[in-house]
Model the fold of this input.
Amino acid sequence: MKKNSDDQLVFLPLAGTGEIGMNMNLYGYGPDIDEMKWLLVDVGITFGDDSLPGIDIIMADHSFIAERRNDLVGVFITHAHEDHVGALAYLWPDLQCQIYATPFTACIIKLKFEERGVDLKGYLNIVDLDSNFKIGPFDIELSTMAHSIPEPNSMFITTDLGTIYHTGDWKIDPDPLIGNPNPRNFKEKYKNKITAMICDSTNVMTKGRSGSELTVRKNLVDVVKKLKNRVFVTSFASNVARLETVAHVAKETNRSLVVVGRSMHRMISVAREVGILKDINIIINEKEAAKKKKSELLYLCTGSQGEPRGAMMRIANNDFHGIEISKEDSVIFSSKIIPGNEKKLYGMFNKLSEMHVNVITEYDEDIHVSGHPCKDEMIDMYNWIKPEISVPVHGEHRHLKYHSELAKSLGVKHPMLIQNGDILRLAPGEPEIIDQCISGRLYFDGNKLVPSDSYHLSERKRMSFNGTLNITCILNKKLKLNSPPIISCNGIDLFDEQDDDIIDSLEEEIYNFFDNSNNLSKKDSKVHKKLESVSKNFIFKRTRKKPLTNIHLVHI
Ligand SMILES: [Zn+2]
Ligand SMILES: [Zn+2]
Done:
């Protein structure tokens, strides 16, 4: 695209800046927000928690780019972690743009679209690792990093207004087993030529270095060698290097590998499709395992975060057909305890401990390394790239703040602290937030996406805290009760402190209400409101609860 004197280059995170999860970033090039061409990088999800009953999956509000989909030149998915790819099959039908990904990520995208029943219609473009290609006005050069999944791509995005380095998720690992051990190679040609670096902030507050996958491999061999009976190892299925490590450990310790859990099998077959894990041929199934001695078995299981349906939790509950965990078996959690999952995991550790099963976590042995760079790796990166502008992303506010201070201390001229929805001009001139767009969250509820401020979601939350109360009154023409009101409730104790039946007393209260209200309005909405307030007050007095109340009036 020919440079126009009014052209600008902007960065706009729709999600993932100020939070860890659901990354969705836009780069815009053109004279004005409404005349720009947009490149989308990553479309991820985050997961619901106990505060959102019934919501498992959350993603970014994509309305800004959906409204401009004719100017969306394409989406590149940096890697196949859920926080980068998870929402694509949900939101792409509103975008209908070209999708670009490297082979492993492309396989995962295909599976996700198949699962959602969304037709890719030939929109998926598979690009090679470390390749160059063009998407609209953006010239892209990929550079493979090391991370905790195959094919973590960082991107050099060049326009007439400069080159941006979008790191994606990365770390420096001299022996990553899968991935690039030396990202430094890349980069001589771009040194001192990077306008802005948009960089992962996850572990910036952790001193030192993240460590190497090879160390995990060596340590796991040593740990497993000492164990008797069966050994269960659980890890993220997407950490393919770790899966390979566990297969290696099985071989080194003369155990047969049993792979348990659908996502583990699925990830192994995707990896094999793109030429990874080709050498793992020692996997046996659960039936064959039953014939072997306990000391000859090593199980690789899903469920490292205590997911209720994950293989590890089901095994711990002795709810997994064909696998019975018992005394003196060992369970190794080769994974991080992700904040928020402690309760589920500690519950599982206790359950295993009660059965006299040996539990080994990253706190006991060095059997896990993070896939994100710690402070010293970040310092290396800044020294290699020397960007003019630094934009910390992929972190909570405290991480972003710490990261921008670090960038400043390393001589970056413009460390920029921005948040979701900020439209940051990177060039020409000094960086500046020039506008803000609507950013927010969409919840996947049942089978549709709903805005996070949806009334029915707050109603559901109230129900989960306070229960429900349903009252049906059959009224004659004089607006008096024709028969006793029908009352039902959920989630409320039916007897009060004096052991009186609350429903009986409420029935009486409703009779009194109709008996004493001689000039009730003929308007149902008014009767409704009054009766609701009488019933709610009554229940609150007796139970100190404010249930969600439904009143039904039937006239005969
Ligand atoms: Zn990642
Ligand atoms: Zn990520």
Summary: DSSP finds 15 helices and 30 strands in the chain.
